[in-house]
Specification:
heterodimer; A: mainly alpha; two-stranded antiparallel sheet; globular; B: mainly alpha; 13 helices
Chain lengths: 288, 276
């Protein structure tokens, strides 16, 4: 049906979006690559020329690197485990018949719409404050000593804040997937006397596997890049400096552009490894 | 066939689900409640749940003191401007990919998606530098452009999945009846596309409103939106829980309400059509 004329019209219609995104991708990427091979300290002498792979070596051999990798892994894995596990349970629960289902859904989804700086500050002050926070009141009520969450249990605190933000996302997507489950299959299994756990393990979980994979991939990409949650709570102190926060500090706080850019290239490579898997799934979905 | 559900089971479901729902919602509820307390009541021990003297004082203090209006206006301009600009660029692109697909359409879509995966921190300095050179640092125009670009892949994708659901047969039938291209677009395609475009706008507005990497790093005073306004509360001064709550409530309320309308679109928009 598509004629030659409509094909060239289509190309023209696509051009602005493609050109803009191409520029948005290539220009900063090439600049980052360029800076990563140079000694560039804007406040201390500016661009001091070519250094080869020095920045790349220095970035990974600095004492801050491995702790940052570890912190990143702990946060990403922690949040993934919590949100996926709770998300599966919650989506199964929300799929059950109940009164006021719509309202409960709204309550569960709400945290996703709270801007990151708000949720981080509300948690930091009104819940995790060691003197006046809700947790401190709760701990005192049970006769326990209140905890300074963000300094003494910094990583679990960050994981908790971020999980609260992302649980709605996981739940919503898994709920959408679970609603497409053929209920007759479940009924048949129920009539055959399959116990709950078996039905969950052999029917529900396999059905959800694709959605779970997608939740994991998308969340990983966003979680690798969390920023505001650390920026306004600990500022990277108390062992909460993730890889992306470390790069941010190198670039904007210590103004070592070469070193920060080398870190940026590592971050881009890391994100791309995850993205390849996501694109495969999405691509397959486009075919049918 | 619906499964027979005993009302006892339904009651248990309802109780458990409501308990969990309220638990998850509690931080938001607590913030809203605290915003109506006095600073002293906000830190009272034991905490007061409802039996406090409701006051609007915090709101007026926040409004007076912090030039809240300007932050709000910046948020609206940046989220709204980037959404409209994004649609102007994305609608033709998604349209042509959905109705005149070529062999490369799939590759282009996937490539667009891949630009969304680029970690912001990896290109922070180049963008920062370009902004300084172009005089865009701390300007609304600069943020509108960045916000448009980071969300463009999502807009194109969402529109594409919506447009693809418009049956081509209708177009063919109209053509047989002698409709011109203009009539086709105006009377048939546009009305069918409007719901999809509206929900894309909604989701994109929400994402841009809540974005907190570029808005924090590329603004200082003039262009700072609500995300940055709230971040300024991270260094506390004296008693400030109630004021923080009032500021937070004002920053999230519009989006919470919009968000409730966009639950379904959220799944489509954020999974790139991979979960239906």
């Amino acid at each position: 049906m598509a004629t030659k004329a409509s094909r060239s019209a289509a190309r023209i219609m696509m051009a602005p979006a493609v050109i803009l995104l191409l520029g948005w991708m290539l220009v900063p990427l090439i600049m980052t690559l360029w800076f990563s091979f140079r000694t560039y300290l804007p406040l201390r002498g500016g661009d001091q020329g070519w250094t080869g792979f020095d920045n790349y070596v220095r970035f990974v051999t600095s004492s801050a690197f491995w702790p940052a990798v570890q912190t990143t892994l702990v946060i990403v894995l922690g949040v993934l485990i919590i949100t996926v596990a709770l998300g599966v349970l919650l989506s199964m629960l929300l799929d059950q018949p109940m009164w006021g289902q719509g309202v409960v859904r709204i309550l569960v989804i709400a945290p996703f719409f709270v801007m990151p700086t708000v949720s981080a500050l509300v948690w930091k002050n009104m819940f995790m404050d060691p003197v006046n926070g809700v947790f401190a009141h709760l701990w005192r009520f049970f006769g326990a000593e209140p905890v300074s969450w963000l300094s003494d249990a910094s990583l679990p605190s960050i994981i908790m804040i971020v999980s609260w933000q992302w649980l709605p996302f996981a739940t919503l997507i898994l709920l959408t997937a679970i609603q497409s489950l053929d209920s007759e299959q479940l009924e048949a299994a129920e009539m055959d006397g399959a116990p709950h756990l078996k039905r969950f393990w052999f029917i529900v979980l396999p059905h959800l596997s694709r959605a779970i994979t997608i939740v994991i991939l998308i969340q990983t990409i966003f979680l690798l890049a969390i920023f505001a949650e650390i920026f306004v709570t600990t500022g990277g102190a108390f062992g909460t400096r993730t890889l992306s926060y470390l790069i941010y500090q190198r670039v904007l706080e210590s103004q070592n552009i070469g070193l920060g850019s080398a870190g940026g290239v590592y971050a881009i490579i890391l994100a791309n490894i995850v993205a390849i898997f996501l694109m495969r799934i999405v691509g397959k979905n486009l075919d049918n | 066939m619906a499964r027979a559900v005993t009302s006892r089971r339904k009651l248990v479901n309802t109780t458990v689900a409501w308990a969990i729902g309220l638990l998850i919602f509690f931080p938001i509820l607590w913030t809203i409640l605290t915003s109506f307390k006095t600073e002293a009541q906000a830190i009272a021990s034991p905490p007061i749940f409802l039996g406090f003297d409701w006051t609007l004082e915090n709101y007026s203090v926040v409004l007076e003191r912090s030039n809240y209006g300007r932050f709000l206006w910046n948020s609206i301009l940046i989220a709204g401007g980037s959404t409209i600009l994004g649609l102007i660029v994305a609608v033709p692109a998604a349209w042509s990919m959905a109705f005149v697909p070529s062999k490369r359409t799939k590759d282009i879509l996937l490539w667009m998606l891949s630009t969304k995966m680029l970690p912001a921190v990896g290109v922070l300095y180049p963008i920062y530098l370009l902004f300084i050179k172009l005089g865009l640092l701390d300007s609304r125009a600069g943020l509108v452009i960045v916000m448009m670009l980071i969300n463009l892949p999502i807009i194109v994708w969402m529109l594409y999945t919506y447009f693809r659901e418009i049956p081509v047969e209708i177009l063919e039938a109209a053509r047989m009846d002698g409709a011109t291209l203009k009539e086709e677009v105006l009377y048939i395609l546009t009305p069918m596309a409007i719901p999809g475009i509206a929900s894309t706008m909604l989701l994109n507005f929400i994402l841009a409103w809540n974005e907190a990497f570029w808005t924090l790093n590329l603004t200082a005073v003039n262009a700072a939106p609500l995300t940055a306004f709230i971040a300024s509360y991270s260094s506390p001064e004296g008693l400030f829980f109630a004021k923080l709550s009032a500021a937070s409530t004002m920053a999230i309320a519009p989006i919470l309400i919009l968000g409730w309308f966009s639950q379904k679109q959220l799944v489509r928009g954020l999974t790139f059509g991979a979960v239906k």
